[in-house]
């Protein structure tokens, strides 16, 4: 995700431990020139400088017996953006999981609750090998950390050259999910929504607190049912249009560009919306926008699943789905910045790889017959289309 979710569909969060502090630290997220982004699917980083990666270690989570009312620290205000965003993502997790279980008709989610010594925690839920779902992960996290001084100076460039800032506290929370159905006519869905804040460095007077929103929802089918894709994109557009008519075309293109498998010269799927570094609008508006997007997941996706989950299919159609799942794996392991960072820094493997399907397939030099339904899907992944 791009894996946020962890935060991307995982329970592992990557933290940094610069000397001399004994507590693990985490580089924060800065916009524009040096973008540090926590991936909500994998609770790790997007676009991290190599110097930051070299000092990264993993702070292990502590299993908890039950869900707390909040993962926020005791001094947090219930009216803060942090608190309201956490409330939103936890309600969204409950709503999506209930819809997934209802569509499956029998399987239930396994839940892991965890906390971290530095504050925060998360709830990881995975449903595996059900009647409808091969694998479905829906995770939330709330994490506190501290960005080391060298990461702050790298991000701020010349503006920080004359300062020697202390550690920069940060806060990050998010929901992330990847849903892989069994039926090749039922599409995979990925979504994640996240919120970040940084506080002023301890010894840089007047440095502002900064915040950002990020996220998106995208569809990855093996076969194109045009009415399904149009419905999905129309729901994304409707959510965007409630706030700004430029959002959908802008975030649709961003999604097409991000989920691009360079070595294949094709997209992972048929897109949706994706955005990052978003802080150039009113904060309350963006909180409402992220909430609207998260609440749009079920109406955008579940009607498609209900129509396609029981359609009969052939072995050849299942094999094609598995080939497209192979593309999904390739993108996540080669290009998704959160996944690759987590693997390089020794993160919790179960959390990092929760977004991957149970099964996938690679055939040597496979080429679908031109004009076939498989070819139509591949063509749409190579040449992104406007669906609404």
TrEMBL record:
Record NCBIfam families: PRK05330.1
Subunit structure: Homodimer.
Domain of life, source organism: Eukaryota
Region annotated Disordered, chain positions: 1-24
GO MF assignments: coproporphyrinogen oxidase activity
Protein EC: 1.3.3.3
Top enzyme class: oxidoreductase
Principal subcellular localization: plastid
Gene3D superfamilies xrefs: Coproporphyrinogen III oxidase, aerobic (3.40.1500.10)
Cellular component aspect of the GO annotation: chloroplast; cytoplasm
Localisation per UniProt entry: Plastid, Chloroplast
Composition-biased stretches (Low complexity): 1-18
Record InterPro entries: Coprogen_oxidase_aer, Coprogen_oxidase_aer_sf, Coprogen_oxidase_CS
Keywords for this protein: Chlorophyll biosynthesis, Chloroplast, Heme biosynthesis, Oxidoreductase, Plastid, Porphyrin biosynthesis, Transit peptide
Pathway listed: Porphyrin-containing compound metabolism; protoporphyrin-IX biosynthesis; protoporphyrinogen-IX from coproporphyrinogen-III (O2 route): step 1/1
Similarity comment text for this entry: Belongs to the aerobic coproporphyrinogen-III oxidase family.
Alphabetized Pfam families for the sequence: Coprogen_oxidas
GO biological process, one term: chlorophyll biosynthetic process
Name of the protein this chain belongs to: coproporphyrinogen oxidase
The reaction(s) this protein catalyses: coproporphyrinogen III + O2 + 2 H(+) = protoporphyrinogen IX + 2 CO2 + 2 H2O
The organism of origin for this protein: Prunus persica
């Amino acid at each position: 995700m791009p894996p946020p979710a962890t935060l991307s569909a995982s329970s592992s969060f990557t933290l940094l431990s610069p000397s001399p502090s004994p507590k693990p630290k985490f580089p924060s997220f800065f916009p524009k020139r040096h973008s540090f982004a926590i991936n909500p699917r994998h609770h790790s980083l997007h676009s991290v400088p190599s110097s930051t990666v070299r000092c990264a270690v993993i702070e292990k989570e502590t299993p908890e017996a039950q869900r707390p009312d909040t993962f926020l620290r005791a001094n947090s205000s219930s009216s803060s953006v942090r608190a309201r965003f956490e409330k939103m993502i936890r309600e969204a997790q409950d709503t999506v999981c209930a819809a997934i279980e209802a569509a499956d008709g029998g399987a239930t989610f396994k839940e892991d609750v965890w906390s971290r010594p530095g504050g925060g925690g998360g709830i990881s839920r995975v449903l595996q090998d059900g009647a409808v779902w091969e694998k479905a992960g829906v995770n939330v996290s709330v994490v506190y950390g501290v960005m080391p001084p060298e990461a702050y100076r790298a991000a701020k460039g010349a503006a920080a050259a004359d300062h020697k800032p202390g550690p920069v506290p940060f806060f990050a929370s998010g929901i992330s999910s990847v849903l892989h159905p069994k039926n090749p006519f039922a599409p995979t869905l990925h979504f994640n929504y996240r919120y970040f804040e940084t506080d002023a460095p301890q010894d840089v007077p007047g440095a502002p607190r900064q915040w950002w929103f990020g996220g998106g929802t995208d569809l990855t089918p093996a076969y194109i049912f045009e009415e399904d894709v149009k419905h999905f994109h129309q729901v994304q557009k409707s959510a965007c249009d409630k706030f700004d008519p430029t959002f959908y075309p802008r975030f649709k293109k961003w999604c097409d560009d991000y989920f691009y498998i360079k070595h294949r010269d094709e997209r992972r799927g048929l897109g949706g919306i994706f955005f990052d570094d978003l802080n150039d609008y009113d904060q309350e508006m963006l909180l409402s926008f992220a909430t609207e997007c998260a609440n749009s997941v079920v109406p955008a996706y579940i009607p498609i699943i209900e129509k396609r989950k029981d359609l009969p299919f052939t072995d050849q159609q299942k094999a094609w789905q598995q080939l497209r799942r192979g593309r999904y794996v390739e993108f996540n392991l080669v290009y998704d910045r959160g996944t690759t960072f987590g693997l390089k820094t020794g993160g919790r493997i179960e959390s990092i790889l929760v977004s991957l399907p149970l099964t996938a397939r690679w055939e040597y030099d496979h080429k679908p017959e031109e004009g076939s339904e498989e070819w139509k899907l591949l063509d749409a992944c190579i040449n992104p289309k406007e669906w609404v």
